[in-house]
Amino acid sequence: MLTRLQEIALIARCVAGDDRNAFGSLVEAYVDDIRRMLDRLTGGDVALVDDLTQETFVKAYLSLRSFKGVARFRTWLFRIAYNEFITHVRKNTHFVAFDDTIHDTAYDDSEPDGPSVDAVTVEEAIGRLSPALKAIVQLYYYENFSVSHISEIMQMPSGTVKSNLHRARVRLARLLENKKDY
Predict the structure, then answer these.
(1) How far apart are CA 158 and CA 171, in angstroms?
(2) Is the separation of the CB atoms in 74 and 30 below 8 Å?
(3) How far is CA 117 from each of CA 106, 113, 114, rounded to the nearest angstrom?
(4) How many CA atoms within 13 Å lie on the side-chain side of 134?
(5) At residue 156, what are phi and psi to the nearest 5 degrees?
């Protein structure tokens, strides 16, 4: 990972001189992080991860002049990647907005007769979360983002991030305890 000063220097070279090598250095520094997050969010769909990663960096390059530098470049890049993932999911499934988060009706907590869970691993359990909860778990536990950074990335209040993180922990605990009523 680059330091904040290194990020700013590379971004300045990109914006001031259209230095594509500098942008290549930014891509090289963060492509593995973005791919790892998208890999977990997509359930390991390599082709989709490739597409979303490419779209993330294309949008980042095209929008680099609008980067204000308030947040770290890495945080800004994760927001773009998360937005690309959500855009893809919205195009391919039925979603409704609820309490500043996105819930897929297939993941509704109110379904009393959900599928039974047999010997669920942590990865499988995370895979059963809604896309929003899965993203929060990914960003918090795997990418080590703070609640405030997750709030910036997902564009939701930090209180909502905290409550969704709690909801995800409860759901994961239930799944891992092998309970049917998750």
Answers:
(1) 20
(2) yes
(3) 16, 11, 9
(4) 26
(5) -140, 155
Helix, coil or strand: residue 96? strand
The span from the CA of 53 to the CA of 38, in Å, is 8
Which residues, 6+ apart, have CB-to-CB distance to 101 below 8 Å?
130, 132, 133, 156, 160, 164
Q: For residue range 61-119, what is the model confidence (pLDDT) as tens digits?
A: 999 999 988 889 999 999 999 999 999 988 887 544 433 344 433 444 444 344 444 54
Length of the chain: 182
Secondary structure class of 95 (helix, strand, coil):
strand
Closest CA to 61 of 33, 26, 37, 34: 26
**CA dihedral sign of residues 77, 32, 126, 107:** positive
End-to-end CA gap in the chain:
38
* Tokens coding 96: 């409704």
Distance, CA of 94 to CA of 17 (rounded, Å) = 43
